[in-house]
Amino acid sequence: MSALAETFCTFIVRQTDARSARVIDFDKLSGGAIQDNFGLTLELEGGSRPGRHEFVVRQDAPSGVTESLSRPEEFRLLQAAFSAGVTAPEPLWMCENPDVSGRVFYVMTRAAGSASPRKLVKANFTNKQRRNIVRRLGTELARLHTVRPPQQALEFLPLPHLDNPALSRVALYRRYLKEIGEPHPVLEWALNWLEDNAPEPGPTVLCHCDFRTGNYMMDGDELTAVLDWEFAAWSDPCEDLGWLCCRSWRFGADDREVGGIGDKKDLLDGYREASGIDLDPSAVRYWEVMALVRWAMIALQQARRHMSGEQRSLELALTGRMVAQMEFDLLNQIGELEEGQ
Amino acid sequence: MINQPETRDLLTEARQVLLNSVRPELTGERKYQVLMIANAMGMAIREFEQRERGRPEQTDRTLLAFLAEQALETTAGEAETTLARAIRERHLDGTDPALRSLLRILTEARLEINNPGYLKR
């Protein structure tokens, strides 16, 4: 562990031209089945960044899932988001040479606070604090969505192959379901509904695609960083809002539609204030249905990793048993949407 | 063969020991692991209960009756695959209340094993 800390430290010294450096703290951070994240605190002398700094080093872990970006791609995404004004960790240095640490890695600034969803959902916020947090989430998404294709640095991100990102998703999830090879009548039925009810697409923008409670850091009531960019893609802006509002990500606080924190109206207000764009609430509800299907697909893939023996894990196995929850929510939500029409 | 006490009883007791005696001693990752184990054991116990009450057979009969009514040929082991394919290939009307009700029965039967608390939400 300490040898790894010294390796990262030497790399940073070289990047900053520091005269010397001392490792103050080094630990493996929790979360991330696809990547290893390390917290590294250094005291740097001289060079371009003198003083004490807290960094995060992110490198590949042995396993991966179907929808995921490489570390260098993620680094460029983070640069694009950071430049667009999103409160993301500042991407500092990329190391594409696997000989340095054994794997490809990059270094970014470390944000204060916690991303724990349960802690956040249980926090005793006032209504005003809740409004402000949710508006801020809207602002962050609005800033991210100013990044539009084509972008040379992001050319690895495929454009939706159909004119409509929603129909592209439907085709993708039908393919996943076929590959998984397990009968799921409710998911097939929901995919038909999503195909038949796809709204007019919005502009194609850079979407985070995993923007939910648990993937942004909060220090008290202040958002300090949007994390976990490995699923980002060109898509419809409402995909990000639908994912954030999906019932699966309210962590038991079902009546607080936005990530178990607050109201959708405030999210849309925050988005509008930052972008001037009035998103259609019914399109967001459509993408909440899409989010349930997507989460079901991810859960099925995770269960397959366990069942195939690729990665035996009780957590992955139990995730497979969660699919019935998404199916139950799909039956209810599609029913409610049809009643409202 | 008589083999007492029953497996379901053993599992139920083992889960109680885990939750009442072991869990209070643990924190962090270990506590999380124990809760996952208790969760898996709870599913096994509920599945035993469902089988004792003949619930899986009841659900299968409902599914087979629906397929027969729609003139969709199938076998007992393939019924859910047949239903999934018929929906995917648009042989069934997605707005049909009988289909909706069947989908709900199939989903609730699994939730009764996996997470009965979710049905009340």
Question: What's the structural blueprint in terms of helices and strands?
Answer:
The complex is a heterodimer of chains A (341) and B (121).
Chain A (H helix, E strand, L loop, with lengths): L1 H15 L3 E10 L5 E11 L5 E10 L10 H13 L7 E5 L9 E5 L7 H6 L4 H18 L20 H16 L4 H12 L8 E3 L8 E4 L2 E5 L6 E3 L1 H9 L18 H12 L5 H27 L6 H7 L2 H18 L1
Antiparallel strand pairs in A: 1-2, 2-3, 3-5, 4-5, 6-9, 7-8
Helix pairs in contact in A: 4-8, 5-6, 5-9, 6-9, 6-11, 7-9, 9-10, 9-11
Chain B lengths: L6 H16 L5 H25 L2 H15 L9 H10 L8 H18 L7
Please explain how this structure is put together.
The complex is a heterodimer of chains A (341) and B (121). With 341 residues, chain A is an alpha+beta fold. Chain A folds into 2 domains: 2-109, 2-Layer Sandwich (Phosphorylase Kinase, domain 1); 117-340, Aminoglycoside phosphotransferase (APH), C-terminal lobe (Aminoglycoside 3'-phosphotransferase, Chain: A, domain 2, Alpha-Beta Complex), CATH 3.90.1200.10. Helix content of chain A is 45%, strand content 16%. Chain A is built from 11 helices and 9 strands. In chain A, strands 1-2-3-5-4 form a 5-stranded antiparallel beta sheet, sandwiched between helices. In chain A, helix 4 (127-144) crosses helix 8 (264-275), helix 5 (165-180) packs parallel to helix 9 (281-307) and helix 7 packs across helix 9. The longest helix of chain A has 27 residues, at 281-307. Chain A starts with a helix and ends with a helix. The mean pLDDT of chain A is 94. Chain B is mostly helical and 121 residues long. Chain B folds into 2 domains: 7-52; 55-115. In chain B, 69% of the residues lie in helices and 0% in strands. Chain B contains 5 helices and no strands. In chain B, helix 1 (7-22) packs antiparallel against helix 2 (28-52) and helix 3 (55-69) packs antiparallel against helix 5. Chain B starts with 6 loop residues before the first helix and ends in a 7-residue tail after the last helix. The interface between A and B is medium-sized, with 25 and 30 residues.
